[in-house]
Amino acid sequence: MASQNSPSASTTNPPTTESPTYLVPNLSNLNPLISIKLDRDNYLLWEDKMLSILQSQDLYHFVDPTITPPPSHISDSTSNTSTENPVYSQWRKADHTLVTWLKLSLTDSINAIVVGLRTSREVWRFLETTFASHNAALLKEQLPTMVLT
Question: Where in this protein does the record put region Disordered (predicted)?
C-alpha cells in the first residue's frame, strides 16, 4: 500500500490556465451591458453599474485590491532558473481584455486621463480616487434641492 505522506499529498495545486478565474472575457458579451459611459459627473452611477457587471461575470477579482495577481515567473530552486508562469500569461491576457472593456465604458475626455494605465486594477483605482469624492460631494450638494415624490 502506498504511503499517504508523500510531498504531493500535502501541497495545494496552483490555479491552472483552465481556471475560470483567468478565462479571457468575451467583449461581445460585455459590450451590450454598457448602458452608461463615465463622465465627470456620473461616477457613482457608473460604478454601481460596473460593479454589478464585474461581479455577475466573475471579473471583480481583477480590480479587487485584496486579491494578488499570480506571480509572473516561477522559480526552480534546483536549477536556479526562472520561467514565465503560464497562469500569469492567462491572467495578463484576461486583464488586458478587461482594461479594453473598461476604457470602452469611458467618455473620450475620461479616456484621455487614463492613458498609460496598464492593468484593470490601475484603471479602476485611478477612477475611484479621482471621482468618488467629487461625485459624493456633488450629490450631497444637490440633495437639499431634490424633491422626493
Answer: 1-23
